[in-house]
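Deviation from plan, reported transparently: CU-O-CU linkage complex.
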Amino acid sequence: MFATTACSRSTPGLGGGGANPLPMPPLLDARPGRSFALRVQSGTTSFYPGRPSDTLGYNGSYLGPTIRVRRGDDVAAVVTNGLNADTTVHWHGLLIPGELDGGPHQIIAPGATWRPTLPIRQPAATLLYHSHVHGLTAEQVYSGLAGALLVTDDEEQGLGLPSEYGVDDLPLLIQDRQFENGRLVMPGGMMVAMQGRRGDTILVNGAVNPLAAVPNRLVRLRLVNASNARIYELSFSDRRSFHWIGTEGGLLEHAVALEAITLAPGQRAELLVDFTDGRSASLVTAADTNSSMMGGMGMMGRGARRTDAAAPATVLRFEPRPLGQARASGVVPTLLASRTGPDASKAVRRRRLSLNMGMGGMMGSGSGGGGLTINGKPFDMNRIDETVKLGSTEIWEVSGEMMRHPIHIHGVHFDVLTRGGGQPDVLDQGPRDTVVVKEPVELLIRFDQPAKSAPFMYHCHILEHEDNGMMGQFSVA
Ligand code: C2O
Ligand code: CU
Ligand code: CU
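Because the crystal trials were delayed, the predicted structure below was used instead.
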C-alpha cells in the first residue's frame, strides 16, 4: 500500500539509516465548497524517531496540505494564524490581484483570520504557498511553512495524464535541512545571509531518507523546490530519461525528453517517469556549486558543514510495484497545451534589475548581511520601485552579481527571451515565474493582474537574500 495517510509526519524509522515511506500531504480539495481553511500552527516533528524538533505547519506540525483548486472557481480561503508571531500566506504563482497575493503587506497578526477570495483564471499548474513576512520568510519557511497548490482544468484533465493523487500523481516538496543529533537546527550568521541557509540532509514532503512505492507504469512527479537556497541538479541514478511536461506556469506545449533538470528555490517542474520496467531507481542531485565565494567552494575555510551541505545526494528512492488501477492512458500526449504567450513586438518598455551583493559587504564591512540589494537599493516596504501599466507588455533585463540568483516576479508568468545575449537554454522555456540569473536574461512579461492598493514583489528566491534586502515592489494600474 502506498503511504497516503494524512499527516504521517512522525515517519517511523526502520532503524538507523533505514528508509521512511514517502509521506503524502493530505489533499485539500477546494472544489466541493469552493473553499478551504488553513490554520498556521506550531508543533513538534520527529524527523528521526524519538528526536522531536520544534516546527511550524499548516493544519499540522510541518508543511501543509496540498490544496487543489479549479480554473473558473472563486475560492474562499480562510487562513487563521495560530502562531505567536506575524505571518502571511503567499500563493506563489497564482495570477491574482496584489491585495490577495499574501505578500509582505497582507500580514496576519497572531490570532487573526485572513479571508481572501481567490479567482482562479489560469491554466492547470503546480504552484506553492508559503510564508512571506518580510524579515522572517526564511526562518518561517525553514521551520515548515510551505505547501503545494495545484490548479486543475478541463484541458489538463482531458489529456489522460496520471492524476490519481498520491498514487501516480505525486507532489514532491524538496528541502535541505540541517540536523544535530537528529534535531532540526537553523544555521545562522553572516555566511548564511550571504550564501543562503543550507543543510546536509534532504527531505521530501518532510521525510528524511524517503522511499516511494510507485505503480509500475507512467508516474507524474510534481517537483517543488521548497528549499531556502539550494539549487538542485536532478537526475536518476540509472540515467533513465524522463519527460519534462510542465513549468511554474503550467504545461509545456510539448514534452521534452531530458536526463537531468535544474530546480532552483521557488521553481517547479512536472515530470512523467516511466517505471514499467519495474526497476528501482533514485532521484539524485549533483553538488550545489552556487556560491559567492571566489573559486566556488574551494575557498570555504571553515568548510566541513558547508561542503556536506553542497554534496551530491540521494533525494528520493522509487520502488515500482503493481499498485492501484491504471486510469491514465500511459502514453505521453504529443500536444500538452497551447498557449498564447506575451508578444515581443508589443513590448513598450525595458527595465533593468541588477541583483547586487555589494562586493564590500561580504569581506567584513560588518553590516550584518548588508549589501544585498536590487539596483543598489535594499528593500523598503514604503517605497514603490516600479510602476507598470495594467495590460502592458515589457522586457525586464535581470542580472545577478557574484552567484546565481533565482529571480521571482509576483503576479505574472513570463517567457525568457534571451540568456547572456544569446538563445535561452532548453530549460528556460516558459511560462515561468522564477528563473536563475547571473548572466543577464531578458524576460518578456505581460502584466494582466492589478496591484494598486497593494504592490507585487520581485525578489531573489534565496530566502536569506530576500529577507536581507534583495527585493523590490511594483504597482500595476
Ligand atoms: Cu515564493 Cu515572493 O515568493
Ligand atoms: Cu510569489
Ligand atoms: Cu540571491
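The longest helix spans residues 137-143. We consider this an acceptable substitute for the interim report.
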